[in-house]
């Protein structure tokens, strides 16, 4: 990145920082554990918050890749306007690493490099994403005809150089980058970290079970209908609701593997706080294959 471009980029970031204020996150991400007796993980779907870019964003410790493509359509967002994007967190369920979406609101810069950096900052700011220790020094974006590459400081290797603790799930980390920046920029491209292998966003990387509603932390009336999407073996989704001395469980149907479809279940609940969990077992190992949880209050 030449000096002129870097100066313009930092100026754009400062302009964004002056125009927005970050809102408090709506909850810390709970640790992923195995088995039904484990603490629940927060559902990350439809949880808006405003992300303000800061002057140190480009040099921050962030995940090291981006999908960067200009939107030249007539309906392209106006620079400075707020828009929703989806960032993707990596979490472990059983022996599998899955991506979970979290919706955020950002200020559109109408600049692909700034938009990419803002989305990466959202990932860096997530206090629950601790499986990978990232240390990215002054990233520079290189936009090519077929692939977008991020270089970090003087070491332009691959993700192994930056994500030392994630060697057992490097593929998931690369998918996290591809999906997050696809949403931020609004166009799919190959993603490459340094001289590493280029990848594109793969639907198979998304958690096979996602709860969409109620939102985590929501207050709802009984009966409560829990809705989501899934693609599991024979479309099976097992569910349970726990809280205030109440324990209810059952099964429902969603989509089969490779064909995601909606699922839902409804329960009558007394006033109180509850955690709903939807999950599927691994047919080969008998362990946990995929799950999602949400905590809510019944008024």
Considering the chains and any ligands shown, give keywords for the structure.
single chain, 299 residues, alpha/beta, Immunoglobulin-like, 2 domains, five-stranded mixed β-sheet, four-stranded mixed β-sheet, globular
Q: Any idea what the shape is?
A: globular
What kind of sheet is the major sheet? 5 strands, mixed
**What proportion strand?**
25-35%
**Tally of contiguous helical segments:** 4
Secondary structure category = alpha/beta
What does this entry look like structurally?
There is one protein chain. With 299 residues, the protein is an alpha/beta fold. It folds into two domains: 202 residues, no CATH class; 91 residues, Immunoglobulin-like. 17% of the residues lie in helices and 34% in strands. The chain starts with a helix and ends with a strand. About 27% of the residues have low confidence.
């Amino acid at each position: 990145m030449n000096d002129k471009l870097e100066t313009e980029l930092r100026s754009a970031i400062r302009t964004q920082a002056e125009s927005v204020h970050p809102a408090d996150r709506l909850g810390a991400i709970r640790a992923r554990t195995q088995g039904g007796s484990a603490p629940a993980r927060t559902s990350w779907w439809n949880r808006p918050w405003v992300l303000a870019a800061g002057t140190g964003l480009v040099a921050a410790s962030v995940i090291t890749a981006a999908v960067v493509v200009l939107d030249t359509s007539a309906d392209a967002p106006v620079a400075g306007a707020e828009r929703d994007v989806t960032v993707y967190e990596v979490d472990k369920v059983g022996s599998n690493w899955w991506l979970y979406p979290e919706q955020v609101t950002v200020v559109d810069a109408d600049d692909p490099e700034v938009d990419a950096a803002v989305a990466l900052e959202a990932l860096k700011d997530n206090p629950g994403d601790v499986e990978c220790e990232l240390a990215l020094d002054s990233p520079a974006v290189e936009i090519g005809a077929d692939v977008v590459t991020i270089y970090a400081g003087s070491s332009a290797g691959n993700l192994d150089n930056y994500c030392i603790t994630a060697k057992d799930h490097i593929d998931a980390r690369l998918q996290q980058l591809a999906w997050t920046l696809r949403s931020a920029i609004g166009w799919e491209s190959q993603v490459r970290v340094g001289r590493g292998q280029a990848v594109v966003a793969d639907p198979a990387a998304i958690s096979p079970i996602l709860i969409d509603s109620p939102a985590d932390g929501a207050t709802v009336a009984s009966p409560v209908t829990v809705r989501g999407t899934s693609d599991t073996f024979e479309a099976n989704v097992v569910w349970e609701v726990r809280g205030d001395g109440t324990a209810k469980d059952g099964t429902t149907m969603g989509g089969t593997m490779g064909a995601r479809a909606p699922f839902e279940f409804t329960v009558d609940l007394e006033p109180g706080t509850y955690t709903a969990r939807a999950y599927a077992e691994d047919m080969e190992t008998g362990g946990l294959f995929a799950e999602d949880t949400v905590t809510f209050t019944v008024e």
